[in-house]
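User: Please run a holo structure prediction.
Assistant: Happy to. Please share the sequence and the ligand.
User: Here you go; the ligand is thymidine-5'-diphosphate.
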Amino acid sequence: MPHCNRKAMNEMKQNTTGKFIVFEGIDGAGKTTQIRLLEAYLQKKGRRVVCTAEPTDLPSGKQLRRALSGEEPKTPCELAALFTLDRIAHNMQPKTGIAALLESGNDLICDRYFYSTLAYQGSETDPDWVRSMNLNCPEIRHPDLCIFLDLSPEESMKRINSRPEAREIYETRERLERVRAQFHAVLKTFDPQSVRIVDAGKSIDEVQSEIQRIVDPILK
Ligand code: TYD
């Protein structure tokens, strides 16, 4: 293919590829609510949006849920590898995977991604190994934007305790404290333009307005 055609094709591909936005936060930070609001905001702008999450509903994700509930205990390395495997499967599923959806022009909002593995599993096993396995994997796409909803462990525990669902293994105060610190350490190592920290202690509307202000410039 002549050089100019290839350039034009690349530009076209870039223009038609959707945006990949990840939400992260310690448990109780309000990801679910804010993701739904952002989805509605993007749809109102006429964009096609798909919301997705990790762990997935694929076999690897189901295995992870059994591990997280304590039903099928796993070592920290097994968990790190399994979360990474689940992420690869999430990326590579034909038609419904991250790569396929973005390439067919959908925006993707994902509840948790590799930042979670770096923070949670990275604090329980070798962080360099966990980081390299995720960031250097050719089948794990890097997001356009990561929004970290930041909340104090006190407020997080209050919110978690008011929920009816059973607690998962990560939801103890000491652990939340450690994971939050670990998240901050991990986020610092990324380009500050692509990883944004939002104060999730504010009202739902205030948090959403801030998110929209951050997302707007990447939509162009
Ligand atoms: P989930 O029920 O999806 O909770 P939440 O609404 O808080 O996201 O459970 C996900 C749990 O899995 C959460 O406690 C964090 C943990 N997790 C990891 O430890 N590593 C990971 O890579 C991911 C994606 C999640």
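The chain has one domain: 19-219.
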